[in-house]
Amino acid sequence: MESLNISGCNGMTTLLRGAADGGSAAGELVTFPRLRLLALLGLPKLEAIREDGSECAFPELRRVQTRGCPRLRCIPMRPAASGQSKARVECDKHWWGALQWASDDVKSHFAPVLI
User: Fold this and answer.
1) Which of 15, 37, 94, 114 could join 3 via S-S bond, C-beta 3.0 to 4.6 A?
2) What is the radius of gyration, based on Cα positions, of the chain?
3) pLDDT in tens, 93-112
4) Contact between residue 23 and residue 51 where contact means Cβ atoms under 8 Å apart
5) Reduced to 3 states, what is the DSSP secondary structure of residue 20?
6) Tens digits of residue pLDDT in 14-23
7) Which helix (H) or strand (E) holds 67?
8) What is the DSSP string of 78-112?
9) Are 37 and 74 in contact, with CB atoms under 8 Å apart?
10) At 9, is the secondary structure helix, strand, or coil?
11) Per-residue pLDDT tens over the stretch 23-46
């Protein structure tokens, strides 16, 4: 899968559920090896990528689009390999400013495109 576009799911609070709901175990690294585009649009109740807050790895990620996700405050992504270009994050200026990052190293792998 190279593109994941989730939009208009007004009641969605989490993208990836825990093991009790058939998802991955807490703390287990979930990897999307070929994903290049992650679009999260019009998800007003989305609060987390993973229910337990664990990281996800997106080694080929090039672009993230977020709009209409005011409750999403953290994107728990493992940084890409060194030498890889930064992933563009197309988002609202206020949303970008309010994001919480695991570290400055993680944040440095993303380049905001503020809209």
Assistant:
1) 37
2) 13
3) 999 999 998 888 888 888 99
4) yes
5) helix
6) 988 765 555 5
7) strand 63-67
8) EPPPTTSPPEEEEE-HHHHHH-B-S-HHHHTTEEE
9) no
10) coil
11) 566 677 888 999 999 999 999 999
Q: Which residues contact 45 (CB under 8 A, 6 or more apart)?
A: 10, 11, 12, 13, 71
Total domains in the fold of the chain:
1
What 3-state DSSP class applies to 24? strand
Say which residues have a Cβ less than 8 Å from residue 106's Cβ, sequence separation at least 6: 77, 78, 79
101, 76 contact by CB (below 8 A): no
Read off the amino acid at residue 96. Answer: W
Please give the residue range of the domain that contains residue 86.
3-114
Distance CA 98, CA 85 (A): 23
Query: Can you tell me the distance from the alpha carbon of 20 to that of 100, in angstroms, rounded to the nearest whole number?
Result: 27
Confidence of residue 10 (pLDDT cuts 50, 70, 90): very high
**Torsion sign, CA atoms 90, 29, 3, 13:** negative
Joined together, the tokens standing for residue 59 give 């080694």
